[in-house]
Amino acid sequence: MSKLVISSIGPASSVQDGGRPGSQRYGLTPSGAMDRLALAAANTLVGNELFAAAVEIGPFGAAFTARCGAVRIGLAGASRSVDISGRAVAFDTSATLADGETLTLGFAKGGAFSYLAIEGGIAGEPMFGSLAVNARAGLGSPYPRPLQSGDELHVQPASGVAERRIELPALPDAPIRILFGPQDDEFSEDNKKLFLDSEWKISATSDRMGYRLEGPAIKHLHGHNIVSDGTVNGSIQVPGNGQPIVLMPDRGTSGGYPKIATVISADFGRFAQISAGHPFRFKAVTMAEAQAEARKFAELLRTLPDRLRPLEGLDLNLEALSAANVAGYAVNAVDAATWQVAEPATT
Amino acid sequence: MAARDAPPRLLPSGDSAITVEFSRDIDDAANRRVLALDRTLAAAPIAGVTETVPTYRSLLVHYDPVQIGFEALGEQLLALAQRPDPSAARTRRWRIPVAYGGEHGIDLEDVAKALDATPDDIVKRHVAGDYRVAMIGFTPGWSYLSGLDKFLHMPRRQNPRVLTPAGTISIGGVQTGIQCIAGPSGWHLLGRTAVRTYQLHRDPIFLLEPGDTVSFTPVDAKTFAEQDRAAEAGEFVAELVAA
């Protein structure tokens, strides 16, 4: 069995998969990937099930070294600079680390979370059918906590199949769509309008439980205490200070603040990827629109394998080869870095 | 349920969940209707419903909008809410041992003072209670019980504690509760139980179900310590009195 050894990793990085829904009635939060489309894309690149366990990497850089054999990986989500022992690699592609090679990832650009999927998945002991880390409940495998330097992931040896890239639809730089409710009647029409008309930023104190929003104070009609009721991913709670908190996959299963609105499921991953401090807006939609978007999103997930393409970058690039020779540099046919066109890291 | 009961409100919680709200307040009759709808749905599942989460006053119904839309599901839920409760007679009854006061319940003396009673009187009243698991939430296994003696109703602490021990038995507002894992709490700590309402590698992992009935039995510190070891090894320690 091969190993992927974590040489360095920042906070907010953990093993995540589709999560463990089904036990919210017992107070068990579902956890799972912040951006399910990105997780599914990374897994598709290496032929895994869509929601197989992968490494969710927070905004900072990380480095991984293959040991005891080669390891094939897929990268998707917030793009970063990628380097495998000196070779530049594009995002939204698969790549293979030879035994001893190190994958170095830079800071996230234009997003918060990236997903590193490994061919064959990550070996671990599922609890409630999931390896996803939920540190508070002591759940997650192979480590029931965020990842740290020195951790080792046991994985299958690389199959050696041709590398792929995945063509994903461009993410719109559009407002995050919401449905009002379940407790929008706890707010005046003026305050609902203020919520929609304002520019919001995500506070740096946000985490996998909730994103705290910074903007104008949203006032309640009848105070900020309601009898606790159930929450979902994307519930927008308004506590006493009027600064909304959007509940994320590690949320409490019940909450006692009025929920003015809910992020639609198709936009949840795009919302999770908004970086702290980056301004954004909300837009209200109808139930019919939100459910049509949910069906489109499900169809996109279902057809992800159809979006795989051969990795052109690995075909011999004669132009680059020739240019390199003209310039008088030595070209080593076995070291792709000398003849491959460096692809821009932002795709 | 009686036909005269007002139909619940259907509140959208995004595009993949409906909050079926029976009341805005903590209301015993509403909680019974929540639990009845939960049982009805379990007995007669609706295609597309993925998970239900009962709380004091509402049932959160998670669903897959690819399989069923908001309107169609809402209609079916309203119809089911009018059906008689299928299995209210089959309630499980648990007896849960509690070490009250001292290091196990550091607020017992203060609660007694605040209510102008003796610690023994507080324990007697708490033990006399016949409670129902109204909901489980917040953290795994945290069981909110309804049926607290009115004499014991008191506001929560001004300053919530950041860390309270696993197994804490506490009161807050009109409720009492069984906390399973260590965590923050603003409630008044009366005692501790060795019972794990949530324990991995045990079958079942979750001991209590919403709707179960619970009563408490006082035990001394030595018994608590023995039960704690037994519970750690996977024993229930809680006694199932009737099923």
Can you give keywords for this protein?
heterodimer, A: 347 residues, alpha+beta, seven-stranded mixed sheet, 5 helices, 22 strands, globular, disordered C terminus, B: 243 residues, four-stranded antiparallel sheet
Amino-to-carboxy terminus distance of chain A: 32 Å
Overall 3D form of chain B? globular
Radius of gyration of chain A: 22 Å
Query: Please, what is the average pLDDT of chain B?
Result: 93
Instruction: Report the largest inter-chain contact.
Output: A-B, 45 and 44 residues
Quaternary status: heterodimer
Helix and strand pattern of chain A: EEHEEEEEEEEEEEHEEEEEEEHEHEH
Write down the Rg of chain B.
Answer: 19 Å
- The tally of beta strands of chain A, per DSSP, is 22
Please outline what is shown here.
The complex is a heterodimer of chains A (347) and B (243). Chain A is of the alpha+beta class and 347 residues long.
Describe the protein's architecture and organization.
The complex is a heterodimer of chains A (347) and B (243). Chain A has 347 residues and is an alpha+beta fold. Helices cover 15% and strands 27% of the residues of chain A. Chain A has helices at 36-45, 189-197, 265-272, 287-302, 318-326, and strands at residues 2-9, 14-16, 54-57, 62-67, 71-79, 82-84, 87-88, 94-97, 102-105, 109-118, 152-155, 164-166, 176-180, 201-202, 210-214, 229-230, 235-237, 245-247, 254-255, 259-263, 282-284, 308-310. Chain A has a 7-stranded mixed beta sheet with strand order 14-15-18-17-20-13-21. A 6-stranded antiparallel beta sheet of chain A has the order 7-6-9-4-1-11, with no helix packed on it. In chain A, strands 2-3-10-5-8 form a 5-stranded antiparallel beta sheet. In chain A, strand 6 and strand 7 form a beta hairpin. Chain A starts with a strand and ends in a 21-residue tail after the last helix. Chain B is of the alpha+beta class and 243 residues long. Chain B is built from 5 helices and 14 strands. Chain B has helices at residues 28-43, 70-81, 108-114, 119-128, 221-232; strands spanning 9-12, 17-21, 49-54, 58-63, 93-100, 131-136, 143-146, 161-164, 168-172, 175-178, 183-185, 188-192, 213-218, 239-242. In chain B, strands 5-12-9-10-7-6-13 form a 7-stranded mixed beta barrel. In chain B, a hairpin with a 4-residue loop joins strand 1 and strand 2 (17-21). The model of chain B has no long low-confidence stretch (mean pLDDT 93). The interface between A and B is large, with 45 and 44 residues.
